[in-house]
Each structure stands twice: as structure tokens, then as C-alpha cells.
User: Fold these one by one.
Assistant:
Number 1:
Amino acid sequence: MKIKSICCIGAGYVGGPTMAVIAKNNPHLKITIVDINQARIDAWNDVDVSKLPIYEPGLADIVKETRGKNLFFSTDIDAAIDEAEMIFISVNTPTKTYGKGKGMAADLKYIELCARNIANVAKTDKIVVEKSTLPVRTAEAIKSILHNTGNNINFHILSNPEFLAEGTAIEDLLNPDRVLIGGECEEAIEALANIYSSWVADDRILRTNLWSSELSKLTANAFLAQRISSINSISELCELTGANVNEVAKAIGMDSRIGSKFLKASVGFGGSCFQKDILNLVYIARSYGLTEVADYWEQVIIMNDHQKRRFSDRLIKTLYNTVSGKKIALLGWAFKKDTNDTRESAAIYVADHLLNEQANISVFDPKVPHTKVQTDLNYLNTRSEAENESGAISVDSAYEAANDAHAIAIMTEWDEFKTYDWKTIYSKMKKPAFIFDGRNILDKSEMENIGFDYYSIGQ
Ligand code: UDX
Ligand code: ADP
């Protein structure tokens, strides 16, 4: 079966870049990305591609090349579903904030809404592809909704988890380590494999059953996050023993069985996936009565929370046990460099801890809009919106953030931070001037020569 028309529901960090790359490599395929969020769709359609709703290196060029030719953005969800032979579901699946499984399970209400929408609109057979990360056996729920519509339409469900990392999404999509397709119907699996095969070698396209595919995505993220929590746990030991975590990471990473990637100690991992997926894994394991399995993976999250807390505690302790009324500059608000995404960013939690101690926070991030700082803090529900507004502001430059600050905390590893004139920054700050480098991106002796009291992770 050769697919001619695709609809992707959800124009976010996964749906947008993924469909843009599929469109670029399949010029004869018509792809419509739909979303309920009109402002987001308008931004995707903006003639000025610097205004796209998500920042991702290389994305704007591909959108410019494909948009209006075979890639379209629309809020007319029903029309796009009706026309498509294959529908990707790429909506958000946040952790539940209410009811059973609160704080642990994935909230599947957006997925279910999509399934019901497809069931209502479809007049012809469809292949439905799960793209969002979902708990194992979600495909079964989707299947059950679709197959109970009574209109004799055949739906084939595939799981095709996305492994792209933000900030390198385009590169990851163009050169994937593997593409994973889980399903029950060989014809449907091959229809999707055929789309990828226009730029991915066939031996990199894995075919599995549905449940293996769903579980592989959760497991991959759990393993990656586990590496970060492991090295972060060692960073605390390094700070007390005189070992240097960068040296330890290098030494163990040269063992080819361990490998060198994902061993950067940091203020803690963030992003929309790691915490959510592990909580999901823990929740599933608990629901099957697998207490030891659940506890094992939960420890990865506990360690990550500890790392964030430890970072702010160390800052407060070093500043003579009080930050009350002191200006603290946070450089970086995104959860990693080269993205404007802030979901679960360590910066939010560090800011929250410092606000609890009555610090005045000044944030600078090269790509995150000013208003996001307030929205993210308000989302935590720790204090009133007015208190967040008076406690934290977002400014236009690092130099402005550092002006009269007692300390700088580096939250994101943006490359531009390394290029700053740190002597000027030092001259603007209160003395002694402290740097807490949550990403180990600056040179310790260089900073100390300028006059800074420099603290990094695991050294
Ligand atoms: C992750 C997975 O990498 C990707 O395969 C999956 O599809 C989605 O989740 P993402 O969250 O976009 O991708 O970014 P990633 O590069 O994995 O970084 C996640 C967090 O870990 C960031 O906060 C990053 O700064 C942190 N990190 C990463 C470290 O602290 N140390 C490291 O060595 C690597
Ligand atoms: P991800 O990182 O998984 O791509 P995002 O939050 O960036 O997550 O994107 C998900 C998108 O899905 C959002 O733009 C949201 O508006 C959209 N969405 C959620 N529910 C629906 C729905 N029922 N129909 C269409 N779009 C939806």
C-alpha cells in the first residue's frame, strides 16, 4: 500500500519537526499538521520563519522548503482526518495532575479525544500511528475506541515512537539510529516503513509487536535518565573527596562497554520526557505489583530531585546561609541548549527554592520568551502569581541579569555563555562575586583569575 496523504494531530515539538522531515523526503506525500491551538497554527504559518512556535536548529529551512507545497498547517482537524489514509497522533501526554495515578500516570485524555475524533469523522479505512510517548497498552485503548464505532471501517494501529532529542531534532530525524514500528498488520507496518525508507536504510527500520515498541520507548528514556542520575550521584561524592567528576566520566566512558555519551554531570535533567516516562514505568510496574522494579526506577527521579535541591542548598549555604533580598542571576531557563522548551527545566525548580528563601531572581535565556518564566513558576502553584511576579523577572541580556547580583547560577549550557566578557560581568556584580556553574561549561582557573568564587558540579 502506498500512502498519499497523511494527517498529524498535534503541532508540537514532536509533530512539527517529524512531519517537516517526512515531507522533505517524500515530496509526493501530502501532509497536514493540525492542532486545536489556533495561535500555534498561525505561528507555524507565519511568513517570517523566525516566528515558528518552536526553536530547533535547521527546522526553519525545512519548513520554508516544504510549507505550502506538501506540508500544511491547519486547525480544520476533521477535514484533515477525512482526507488522510494515515493519521499520526502526536498530542501531549502530561503526567496526571488529578485523581488516580496523580503525579505518576500519563494523562491520556488528549489521546482519547483524538481517537474519538477519528472514529467520528472517518469514512474510509485508516492507519493510526501513535507517535506520542504512551504507557504500554495504550494502543489497545485506541483500538477499542476505534473499533466500537459500528461504521465498518478498518483501523490499523501502529506504534512508532519518536527518539529525537530537542535541540538536535532535525539531525536526529535525518540520521536516526533506528526507526521503530510496532504493529499487528504487516501491510500497515510496511506502508509506514516505506515512508521512512525514502531516507533511512532498511536495516535501521525495526519491526516489532505493538507492546515491545511502546515499552522500548519508555525503557530507552529510563536508561538514558539513569545514566545522568548515576553520574550526578557520583558528583556529590566527588565534591567531598577531591575527585573530579569530569575526569571520572572520561575514565569510565572510555570503557567501550560503558560508552562516553550521557555522562555529563549537571544540575539535573529536565525535558518533557525523562521524568514523565519514568513515572509512567514506575506506575505500570506498581500496578502489576512489581514493587522492586518500581522502586528501582523511582530512584532515578529521587536522585534527580536531590541534585536540583542540592544545587540550590549549596548556593544558599555559600552565600552565608541567606539569599533573602539578594539578587541572583540565572543564566538559562530552557531545559537544555538549542531549544526554547522549558518543560521540567531544572531552572524552574532552582528558582522556586531560591524564591522560598526570598531571593530576587533575574533570568536571562537567549530563546525563551520573557512571559514563560512567570507561567512556569505559576504552574508549580507554590506561591501567588503576584509573589512570583515581584520575585522573578526575565531580562534581555546576561549583563543586565548580572548587574548588582550576588551570584550567577548557570542553568543551561548555551554556547554563547562561554563567549561572554566575564571580566565585565564581574565588574558589574556585588563582591564577593559567585558563580555556580550547573553545567560545568566555564573554566575554573580562568574564572578564579578574574576574581570570581567559582563552584561547579562534582569538583
Ligand atoms: C530525550 C531523549 O534523549 C530522546 O531520545 C527522547 O525522544 C526524548 O527525551 P530530550 O529530553 O529532548 O530527549 O533531550 P536530552 O538530550 O535527552 O536531554 C534531557 C535532559 O538531560 C536535559 O535537561 C539535558 O541537559 C540533561 N542531560 C543530558 C544531562 O544532564 N547530562 C547528559 O549527559 C545528557
Ligand atoms: P510534544 O513535545 O509531545 O510534541 P507539545 O505540547 O509540544 O508536545 O505538542 C502537543 C500539541 O498537541 C499541542 O500543540 C496541543 O495543542 C495539541 N493537542 C492536544 N490535544 C489535541 C487534540 N485533541 N486535537 C488536536 N491537537 C491537540
Number 2:
Amino acid sequence: MLVLVINSGSSSIKYQVREVTTSEENVAPYTSSMPAINERITLEQATLGAEGDEVLTKGLIENIGEGGEIADHSQALDVMAERLDRELNGREIDAVGHRVVHGGERFSAPVIVNNEIIRAIERLAPLAPLHNPAAALGLRAIQKKWPEMPQVVVFDTAFHRSLPEKAWRYAIPDAFYRLHGIRRYGFHGTSHDYVTGKAAEFLGVDREDFDAVIAHLGNGASVTAIRGGASIDTSMGYTPLAGLVMGTRSGDIDPSVLTGILTRNKDVDAERLDEILNKESGLTAVGGTNDMRELEQRAESGDSGAQLAMDMAAYRLAKYIGGYHVAVGGMQCLVFTAGIGENSAAFRKLVVDELSALGITLDPEANEVRSAETRVISGEDSAITVLVVPTDEERAIAEATAGLVEARIDHG
Ligand code: ADP
């Protein structure tokens, strides 16, 4: 099955076409009450029997919208369809899988799209004002262009629907939660879910028995506590600003700093403060760049700001890992993934050096290996196994899409 995976932003569309093979006996269950059933199944169940390894083509369409070269999402799809015609040598797309940032409290698994689902995604716009409306535009544009095309949405928040209330509640008056949905949601769920499955499989542990801590370290970064294969806590919160020190985001900060900045700086309003915390903070604020490769080079040549930025990010992450080790009742495994987690041996070393109290050690040679494969990097004497597991969100989305669509075709 050819699956087109789409990440639809407000002014851009990222796409990838994956060839997914499905085996019949393993497809996800389907009944006529599709959405209700689907909302209870996990990504893993949705992807059972699906292998979405091969990338046939991928691309990016930018400058969509007012003042851009491309008027709207419909026109962007025309551009994409033309490219796909050329690049796929006449082969046709069978289904479309969309990455959607926010599934609110409703969605805990991928679902097949219908009009009601699109409206639900739009209704969640107050929680993700930049992302959800853009995703809905992408969904509607596909409906218009290819009315019969099956579409599936995969939510960034869904994997964290298993958080217990003590982990997702904020200790502020209840009205903010009831009226505005202010609580911890967590993000990067597709990646945390996928990597958890891969790590358990690699170690030969049943997922239900797998307790781990997963560090997804890209430009945005989050760490998740996995107990029995499910997410029980995660560092991002109401928004992806919380938790770790990231490329351009501050991560956790004393809330009074924000009110302090607002009251002391007349030229900084809430919108500007949001921009400072999301785009001008983190590694960039301390080390002068959000690029880990550059930070490594600068630190090596004696730049103390770059070294401090790396030290702060590693220290914050190590504190989370220690906390989550307690939360999961003792992790069997620590996993590094995403751009920095997969590629920066120097950063992984800084983190593990902070974790000596847990008896975790690195195998220095294994840590230096560059590879696209899952691998062990802990030392033989390490109390806890440390893995590098390459993430692949597009693959997870393609497999979930194929799994659900195939199930519908088989049983529907
Ligand atoms: P995004 O969140 O945008 O998907 P990525 O997962 O691609 O981010 O991660 C981007 C980060 O990974 C950047 O900080 C980049 O510097 C870092 N990175 C990528 N390749 C390397 C490398 N070879 N060595 C160190 N850091 C790397």
C-alpha cells in the first residue's frame, strides 16, 4: 500500500510517500462503529503487521497563504499531486496519514477521518492555535481533491493519554482546567510510542513488562516515563515549552520569572514573552546557537557559553531521568533518540556522566559508533542498559494508516 504522510503547517506542507506492506492476519480489528473502536486501540495495535520501511519520495512545499507564492492548502496539494505524478511513475496513493499535534482529551490513538473528526480537530484549536487549524486545512484539501481517499490522523498527544491524574494535573485552581483545559498533555507521543516498541523488541521484553525512560532530543526535546509499555509521565506539559532545555525553548522555569518580566518591561507583552521563551531561549540563549554540532565544536575550542549550554541541558535531562527512574519503579532501560539523541555522542556522555548515582556507565567506543540501527551504548558493568534507537515518526504514521485502512477494507 502506498501511504502519503503529511505534516501540514500553517504556511508549509511536508510530505513523504512510504510503501507499506501489510500481512492480512495481523490487521487491526474493525467494526461498523469505527471511531469508537479506533479511539481505544493503540498505535502498536494499529501498526501490527504493517512494515513501512521504504521512502519512495519526500518533499516540502513552502510559502502557502496570504502573500505567499501559493494561495492556499488546496493549491499546495495541486503542486504536490503534480510532483507525485512525476516521482511515482504513475503509481497511485492508497491512503493519506496526517500528523496532528493536538488530540486534546479525546484522542488516545490514531483514527480514520470523517467530517466529525475534522471538526473535533478544529475545536481543539485553542490548545494548538498554529497547528490544529493547519492540519484541518490539509485534511479538507485532500477531501476536496480526492473525495474517496481514506485518511488517518495520528496525534502527538495521544500516547500520553495514559498519564495518571497525579501526573497531568497542575496544582492551580480547578476552574482553569474545567474552563480552559489547562493540564499536562505531553507531545512527541508518536515518537515515544514507536521508540518504546522498538526498544522492547530489541531487548526481547514483552511490551507490557517494559519499564523505561525515553529521551527524545531534537530541536524540541522531551523525556517520557514508560511503565508497562505505556506513558505515565512526560516532561512537556500544557504546551511543548515545558521540561528540558531545548534548542530555542527555555523548558521549566519559575512561573514568577514570567510575571516579573511582564511587570518590569513595558515593551514586553504576553505575546512577545511567548516569543522570547519559545524562540530566543534554551541552547540559543546560553550558547549562541541551537545546533548541537556547532555547540560541540565551539565547546571543544574553549567557548564557555557553548559548554555551559550543553552542561545545563544535560543536567536538566539527568534530573528528569532520575525522577522518572523513581516514577517507573526502576527503569530497565534508558533510550536516546532523535537528532541529538541519535547523533551526539558528546551530549550522551554528558548526560550519562550525571547519572553515576544510578550505576549507569557508557561503553565509550560503542557510544562513538554512528549507525542507523538500534544499538547498546552502556558499559558491561552498567546497572541499566542504555540504547540508541533511531526514531521514524513518518514510518509510524504510515504503518498506523495502512493498518487501520486495511482493517476497514477487510472487515468493512
Ligand atoms: P526536529 O525536532 O527539528 O525534528 P531533529 O530531531 O532533526 O530535530 O534534531 C535536530 C538537532 O539534532 C539539532 O540540534 C542538530 O544539531 C542535532 N544533530 C543532528 N545531527 C547531529 C550530529 N551529527 N551531531 C550532533 N548533533 C546533531
